[in-house]
Structure formats: C-alpha cells, structure tokens
Specification:
CATH superfamily of the largest domain: PDZ domain
CATH class of the largest domain: Mainly Beta
Shape: rod-shaped
Radius of gyration: 38 Å
Largest sheet: 8 strands, antiparallel
Structural class: alpha+beta
Strand content: 35-45%
Helix content: 10-25%
C-alpha cells in the first residue's frame, strides 16, 4: 500500500533510461526492508547520467581542491553522455562555464539547455581536469525508477504529446423583448454592435411579426430604434415605457437607423391600448 507522498531532498539528479533527471514523488513501504522509493523522469532535455553530491569525505578521496560538484555514478547506454565520453567517476565541476555546486543546480542547468545544443562540461578524471562537449538530446520516453533498498528497478514508457485542448463554443445568453402592440422582438445593443450599426445607443429589432403595426409601417429586422415619438431609447424597457406613455395615441413615430442611415417611420397602432401580457414582456433566449 502507498504510504502517501512527501517531499524529500533530491539525492539523485540526472537519470536513466533516456530520462533527463529523476524527481522523488513518493515511497512504498516494504515489510522488513527499507521503503521502496518511487522516482519519475522530469524535463525534456536528456543527458543520460546519474549523479550524486560530492561530500567532504568524497572530495578528499578524489583529491579535489573544493567540496563542490557532482560525481557521475552511472552513464546511460547510447546516451549523449556516453557518446561524448563521460564516464563513471567523473566529477562535474563546470557546465557551460558555470561552477557546479551540487545536484539541484546541475539538474536546472541541463533542463534549461535546449535539445540539440552542445554543452561544454568541465570534469575531473583521475585528478586531471578536462572539458568534454556533449550534445543535449530530447527525451524520447518517460521512466519510473523503483528503489527497494539498495536495488533499482527501472521502467520506461514512450513519451507522448498531450493533444491540444479546444474549448467548445458556449451559447451566450441574451435578453430579448417582444411587444405585442408594436409587433417586434428586440434587444439592447452592446458597444460592439452599436459601433457596427453606426449608432451610439438604441434597440436592435431582431424580428418583425407579419401584419403587425411595425411591419405595416416598414420596420425591418436589423433596424435600430433610436427614438419613439421623439423620446430617445436605449433599451427595450425604455421602448415599453415610451409606448405606455403614448397609450392614448393611435399614430407613433419611430426613428430608426438602417444601414447607417436615419429614417422616420410612422406606425399606426390602431385602437389596441392593452399593454402586453407580463409573460410576453420579457424572455430569455439561448
């Protein structure tokens, strides 16, 4: 069973079957043994080595002048590191002209190197300093490293690209208004539509009921009503209020903009002075 996930200091930096580096992600308890550590490859750039920190004791054993750098403990077969000539026991002191202090910094330096670029790696081998050029490759697969005690199991899976996620079109709600007395369905203009129709504000006619007062007066879908009997309107609610205030009038003038040209239409409302039913006064469409 899993024993949860917890953060630990990074002990092994660049690793293994075609991985750029290993990152600790959890552990599995094993009865009577040390926990089995679980690591997974991270980063697209691939060098192909395992490294460990250089301790003070190890620095003395290798006759190093300073306690810094990382020691290569494994070189992956057919990796950029092997092709460049890096060997187990090499101590990396410089990478692209930068001092290497430890594994975490070395991981970052390799990860930030684009694949295909040659990296100059300064190493100490058998007491002699030398510079080796390794061409960083792109990681072709991802791997998981299981470490039960002192053993090591490795699994490699092909690398895959995540498909591009495209958000579907989502219907946008808008408020429309229908006047049974006038015979139109309309909506308020937003700033972009107002600019498109060539007005500062107004009410857009979405549809006109056949044989209605508006249809007989020549109102068409796409017209923008800017005034009702001289009263400026900017919303369906204001059109409703204007018509109610003119309930006793039979003829009402509408100022509309059609194809960016203003015109005045005279509407004969007849004798119907009944206000629209509440259920028809406003509705939401999707």
């Amino acid at each position: 069973m899993w024993n949860g996930f917890r953060s630990l200091p990074l002990a092994v930096a660049l690793a293994a079957p075609v991985l750029a580096q290993d990152v600790f992600i959890g552990q599995i308890p094993v009865e009577g043994q040390q926990p089995m550590l679980l690591r997974a490859g991270a980063g697209p750039s691939f060098l192909g080595v395992n490294v460990v920190e250089v301790t003070a004791e190890r620095a003395r054993a290798l006759n190093l002048k300073e306690e810094r750098g990382v020691e290569i403990t494994r070189v992956e077969a057919d990796s950029p590191a092997e092709k460049a000539g890096l060997k187990v026991g090499d101590v990396v002191l410089e990478y692209q002209g930068q001092r290497v202090e430890g594994t975490e910094q070395f991981i970052r330096l390799v990860r930030e190197t684009p694949s295909g670029r040659a990296a100059k790696i300064g190493v100490v081998r058998s007491g002699q300093y030398q510079t080796i050029a390794a061409t960083i490759a792109e990681r072709k697969s991802m791997g998981v490293v299981l470490r039960p005690g002192d053993n090591e199991w490795r699994m490699t899976v092909p690398r895959f690209e995540m498909p591009e996620l495209v958000m579907p079109d989502v219907p946008k709600a808008f408020m429309s208004w229908r006047s049974s007395r006038l015979g139109v369905e309309a909506e308020t203009l937003d700033a972009q539509l107002a600019e498109f129709f060539g007005v500062k504000e107004g009410v857009l006619v979405r549809s006109v009921v056949k044989e209605s007062p508006a249809a007989k007066a020549g109102v068409k879908a796409g017209d923008v009503i800017t005034k009702v009997d001289g009263q400026a309107v900017s919303s369906p609610r204001e059109v409703t209020a204007a018509l109610r205030s003119l309930r006793e009038k039979r003829n009402v003038s509408l100022q509309v903009v059609r194809e960016k040209r203003e015109m005045t239409l005279n509407v004969d409302l007849g004798n119907d002075t009944t206000p629209p039913a509440p259920g028809n006064a406003q509705r939401i469409k999707l």
